[in-house]
Write a structure and sequence with these properties.
It is a single chain. By secondary structure, the protein is an alpha/beta fold. The protein has a single domain, classed as Alpha-Beta Barrel (TIM Barrel), CATH 3.20.20. It is about 40% helix and about 20% strand. It is built from 9 helices and 9 strands. The strands form 3 sheets. Strands 2, 3, 4, 7 and 8 form a 5-stranded parallel sheet that branches. Strands 1-9 form a two-stranded antiparallel sheet. β5, α6 and β6 form a beta-alpha-beta unit. The protein is globular and about 45 Å long.
């Protein structure tokens, strides 16, 4: 048996257990011209406002995966997201990698974080995105035990790196199609969020969203939140594990 064949054979039990309806949401199967816009690590002054304004200009909607460390500090921005009709999801109590925590700690943190976020916005929270997209079968079980659904992504805006805006847009658009879940950020996690990822990149997040939506519009695509896209589509799930 060749090495690729062995790899596929070893992956089959994982896919059977965690793929399909039991996996993580990685896209939407849809015939509508919807691209799912998602933003992580907010709310953050100087970033969230620009993103909200750009979305409002074309009546697009998005799903914001918020950090509780930020939501507590900037409740007004969180309220602005809700009042503008966007979907709120949980990114974490802070931005620490879940794979470095015990299963009990992951379950406790996500349950408490969900309850606190629901109290803040007055709505049920369904979606969860693990910080850095890192999860193991163990952390996946801990997160889903309380009913949260992990959501990952496809195209990325690379807005955590210092690269030209045009390159960010071109890369995301190149990999986008109807039903894609696009990863963007309206903030940048730091020490107050339990991590140290270096200096924040120089990026105008509102301008980036505006440029992206402009190119999507030229291609007949519109930005939608995950929940809204799923009103006319269905979830695509697969196993996604990385440390």
């Amino acid at each position: 048996m060749t090495a690729p064949s062995r790899a596929r054979k070893l992956a089959e039990p994982v896919e059977r257990l965690f793929g399909g309806i039991a996996g993580s949401v990685c896209g939407v199967r849809t015939e509508a011209p919807h691209v799912v816009l998602t933003y992580d690590d907010g709310p953050e002054p100087g970033g969230t406002e620009g993103v909200l304004a750009a979305l409002a200009d074309v009546r697009a909607t998005a799903t914001f995966f918020v950090l509780l460390t930020r939501a507590r500090r900037f409740p007004g921005l969180l309220a602005d997201m809700v009042s503008a009709g966007h979907e709120i999801a949980l990114h974490g109590v802070d931005h620490r990698r879940l794979t470095g925590l015990s299963s009990d700690e992951v379950e406790r943190r996500t349950r408490a974080g969900r309850a606190e976020l629901e109290d803040l916005i007055g709505r049920r929270v369904t979606w969860f995105r693990p910080p850095y997209g890192t999860q193991s079968p163990r952390t996946w079980r801990a997160v889903t035990r309380d009913g949260l659904v992990p959501v990952l992504w496809g195209p990325v805006l690379r807005d955590w790196q210092d690269v030209p805006q045009a390159d960010r847009v071109a890369g995301a658009v190149r990999d986008s199609r109807a039903g894609s879940i696009v990863l963007g950020h309206d903030g940048f996690a730091g020490p107050a969020d339990g991590v140290e990822d270096g200096p924040a990149p120089a990026v105008d997040r509102g301008d980036l969203t505006r440029r992206l939506l402009g190119v999507y519009g030229e291609r007949g695509l519109v930005g939608r939140s995950l929940g809204e896209a799923l009103t006319v589509g269905r979830q695509y799930r697969r196993a996604w594990f990385r440390r």
